[in-house]
Specification:
Helices cover 40% and strands 21% of the residues. By secondary structure, it is an alpha/beta fold. The strands form two sheets. The chain has a four-stranded parallel β-sheet with strand order 2-1-3-4, sandwiched between helices. It is globular and about 55 Å long. The mean pLDDT is 90.
């Protein structure tokens, strides 16, 4: 989500990031790691070198010039989402809204799915659609690898993408080239989707908070598993 926020900023768009998990200080530390390649732990404990310090200062100055707002609230209501988004649209011409992430802890799987579906529908239609902006939202999967009754959720999304950590036997060769995670385009109203046993190979480097498409993509017929 953070990677996408920074990408949108680099394209010249204004971004609002509504966060339920992370305070702004921690977010900025991770963003600077992504922008500079300086490890997060170094930024947190101040153990970076003089040259890394210059990179961090330059990245921070760039970050401050962007039309970007990160807001942390453990609980967002429909009213606070709408009001805050309208304010950002008025003040900085909001282009892209990220909601990290949708939550519902009460009820059985069907009830949770209905509540999450209602949240997605509200974000898509009452916020993103009515304000004519783009948006991205996340939800956590359960032990089954799905988000509650995910078929219901797909009804309310334009595109559904699953972010999955690879098993050890799925990592081929150097993971920095072939990927340690995978993305599956599960549902797509806007273009092509993928079968459940296919994916896009991606590299996640947690030290610098970077996610990018792997240089070497798998070919299903040649997979050793």
């Amino acid at each position: 989500m953070m990677n996408e926020a920074l990408y949108q900023l680099q394209q010249g768009y204004s971004v609002g990031y509504f966060d339920t998990e992370m305070g702004s200080r921690q977010f900025v530390e991770r963003a600077l790691a992504h922008l500079t390649g300086v490890e997060v732990r170094k930024i947190k404990n101040g153990s970076y070198t003089a040259s890394e310090s210059m990179k961090l200062k330059e990245a921070l100055q760039w970050f401050k010039r962007q039309k970007f707002v990160h807001l942390y609230k453990p609980v967002w209501t429909d009213e606070t989402i709408y009001t805050t988004a309208k304010i950002l649209q008025y003040k900085m011409g909001l282009d892209f809204l990220i909601f990290d992430y949708l939550k519902c802890d009460d009820g059985n799987a069907s009830e949770v799915a209905n509540k999450l579906g209602s949240q997605i529908s509200y974000l898509k239609n009452s916020i993103i659609g009515s304000m004519n902006i783009s948006g991205l939202a996340a939800a956590q999967t359960g032990r089954s690898g799905e988000v509650a009754d995910s078929d219901k959720l797909d009804r309310y999304t334009s595109v559904t993408i699953k972010w999955i950590k690879k098993d050890k036997d799925e990592i081929v060769g150097n993971w920095r080239e072939t990927g340690n995670y995978k993305l599956n385009v599960k549902y797509n109203r806007l273009g092509e989707l993928q079968d459940s046993d296919d994916w896009i190979d991606v590299v996640f480097d947690g030290n610098i908070m970077d996610i990018h498409q792997a240089k070497i993509q798998h070919f299903p017929n040649d997979m050793p598993f």
